[in-house]
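Supplementary Note 3. Input sequence used for the single-chain structure prediction.
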Amino acid sequence: HRFILLPGDNEWSNCKDPLARLRRWREVFCERPAEFCEHQRWQAGGWVFVALNVPGHDNNVRHPEHKPRMQAVLYALEEAAAAAGRRAGLVVLMQANPFLTFPRDGFAELRNALERLAATSPGKIVLIHGDTHLYRQDEPLPGLRRIEVWGSPIVSWIRASASPGALRVDGVR
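The predicted structure, written as discrete structure tokens, is reproduced below.
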């Protein structure tokens, strides 16, 4: 199994020189370091998975890098949705909680894209994220299943299994 690591705010966007940190992250963790190499897509258990570089708490919305990165995020999401086609569904992984809108909302375009996907494929879109340090499974948008994973101070994990019929969360530790 490949190891996929998602960059988040602690890895780059909250740092003194965020672009230098992101460049270094890509050098260390991308198979072939390049712009947006952190956006990964793969298939397993009948599902399409896409990992996206969307950092909390505000998606670095005030920085000039935000716009080109989000164009790449939305493109990767659109391509993953097209690849999901008639498969079991699409699993979207990111660090940020895109439903945070305070103090600055850097997620509006992404929420709109998720809302459109959930409307056209209800029950087939799953968002897995962290950022707000809670564990929950809910439906923040009609047709969109959300699984939020724990964060500090609770260092934990979840195990999920993907099959053509469902994405099942087996346990929370």
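The longest helix spans residues 66-84. The first strand starts at residue 40 and ends at 44.
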